[in-house]
Amino acid sequence: MYTYTQEVLTIRYLRFALISLLLSSLLWIVACSNQSQSDNQLTLEEGVFSYAMSGLYKPFNYTDSKSGNLAGFDVEIGEALAKEMGMKPNPVTNPWESIIAGLQANKYDAIIGSMAITPERDKAVDFTNPYYRSGAQVFVQDKNTSIKSPEDLKGKKIGVVKASTFSTIAKEYTSEVTEYTSDVTALQDLPTGRIDAVITDQAVGFHAIQEENFPLKEVGKPLNLDEMAIAIPEGNEKLKEKINVALQAIIEDGTYDQISQKYFNRNILGEEQ
């Protein structure tokens, strides 16, 4: 026989089921709304393109001694891309050894910091099309006569920047590798005798010699050719496509060449190898 108690329990159950259904529907609507917002918003802050670099890689990215602002090739490429995308540029700095971790933690939208594409990095981030190509070059003190070719690096003390592809190359020649926070600091240490050579980007070394009057010289030809690209969080295909379109646009309209000529007196995009 259907009792009063059973009736009350049934009503309570129906109320509970209805409330659960309403809550589930509400959560689904919120989730869909957030997903839609995420899909439509390419960057962390709408209308702003924040991009990171070490700020210690002159002439690619550094702090201008007069203005105190970030300057360099990477900074201006980021500004040109942001303008092309209809966004406000926001260059920021982050230590190089943790710059990918910062991207993964959503501290900024991208890395425009002269990052070479490597298989290991490609597992952690997505890369755009290359925005310049350059090689790893050996530099020594200008009076050095013992290192005339890369083969002479065996057993020598080599300086490189932390967490760089240059560090990997240096370890192919010697176990005595000293890591620095910046390539410029490593180059400055050469005349002291604490290290015998530095492996860094060719353009960085040439700039130190020609513009900063560092008492250095290059050894042989570049050890390799790296393709530098813009790193973005994995899976953000819309941002990747938007940057690639903007990059192609500034290449075609001459903006890229203008920036490159300003810093290097040549176009450093080069030809695809």
Automatic annotation (TrEMBL):
Residues 48-266 form the Ionotropic glutamate receptor C-terminal domain. The chain crosses the membrane at residues 12-31. The lineage of its organism: Bacteria, Bacillati, Bacillota, Bacilli, Bacillales. InterPro entries: Iontro_rcpt_C, SBP_3_CS, Solute-binding_3/MltF_N. This is ABC transporter substrate-binding protein. Gene3D superfamilies: Periplasmic binding protein-like II (3.40.190.10). The keyword rRNA-binding does not apply. It holds the Pfam family SBP_bac_3. It is found in: Cell envelope. Keywords: Membrane, Signal, Transmembrane, Transmembrane helix.
